[in-house]
Amino acid sequence: MSANPPYGYTYTSAAPPLFAQPFTVAATGVSAGQRFPLQNVAYGASLSNPNSTVNWSQFEPLVGIPAVDPRDVTPYAEHWMLSVERQLGRSTLTSISYIGAEAHHLLVLEEANPADPTLCLSLGTALCGPFNEQAARTQFGPAFGSVELQRTIANSNYHALEATITERAHGISLLASYTYSKSIDQSAGLPEPVNPVNPSLSRGLSAFDMRHNLVVSFHDQLPAPKGSGPLHVIASGWAVSGIARFTTGLPVTLLNNNDTSLLGTIPNGINNNGVDTPNWSGKSLSLQLNPRGGAAVFDASQLTLPTPGTIGNARRRFFSGPGMENLDATFSRTISMQHGKALELRAEAFNLFNHAQFFGAASVQGNISSSFAEGKMNLFGHAVSAMPPRLMQLAMRFRF
Description:
Layout: E1 65-68, E2 76-88, E3 92-111, H1 117-123, E4 147-169, E5 172-185, E6 193-194, E7 204-205, E8 212-221, H2 230-235, E9 238-247, E10 279-280, E11 303-304, E12 324-336, E13 342-350, H3 370-373, E14 391-399
């Protein structure tokens, strides 16, 4: 698709390299040999005008080459909705809706040159192993490494129940919205790799799936005492407003970048992850959705590295991390002046109660390799990031 040799002067390592020695395999210390400077290759090669002067050893193994499947088709989506609205009294409006969507022929990455794990194991570790499966490649031979096709073979579906209530009366405005939903796909956002042997393992919760989501916004114009005296002037123009949000968490993405399957689905830089996942024991993960004090979000002992040559049975995403309980609030006063002028004073607080929010797509470490990469600290299964603490600000605005 781009930057492919011999005309794209690049080199992609077949295995994670050392930073200071980019042609040395980090895991084994084996040198792949100096690849630069690359040769100049004349353009114009074709079936009728072949170029036999290319020294392919500079580029081999050809790896990390994304290609577009010529059988790809245009993705499409279907959407439907049924909604009922009802007015209750003079100031209350309610609605309840069912929302559905399906998308077809979504773009994913699929390994076109996987290795044969059985053959790899039979060759022995000296000739074949993690990140070194060239001798066991099944389609293009040992001159090629991981070759990923961008294919439109994925699909997704989303179903949701949405309910809202709106109230406006006596200076109070209230909007409450609740969503109960579920989203499943094989790829979300950037194209994700699918398992070339068992594609069903790549199907799971969408990265943005959020089962419960309740948002309440309010604005209360505080009443002022009647009259026109000093007390009326001081007590007029005050208001309180805010947004409260209560949600369940986003799914935890499980990763196993140790190439234990011996399929050789090497990360390609677009998503930087292969298709391997851990093995799940099938027992409860003992989810702890309030992981304060260093408590683990899930029991990492129930997820282990697969036996070399086998595929992990855990789906990429099948459970969610901590949710959110947050309140942003504003206390303000508007001082009216002559000729339509006004001065507005505001005190605003985000995360008013300073509640720790371990919420986000990457807030929980789901990479089983992290237990080997972080020194003595085993971060697998722990919360590794949080949303900002309480933030407060003062503002003044003059309208004229």
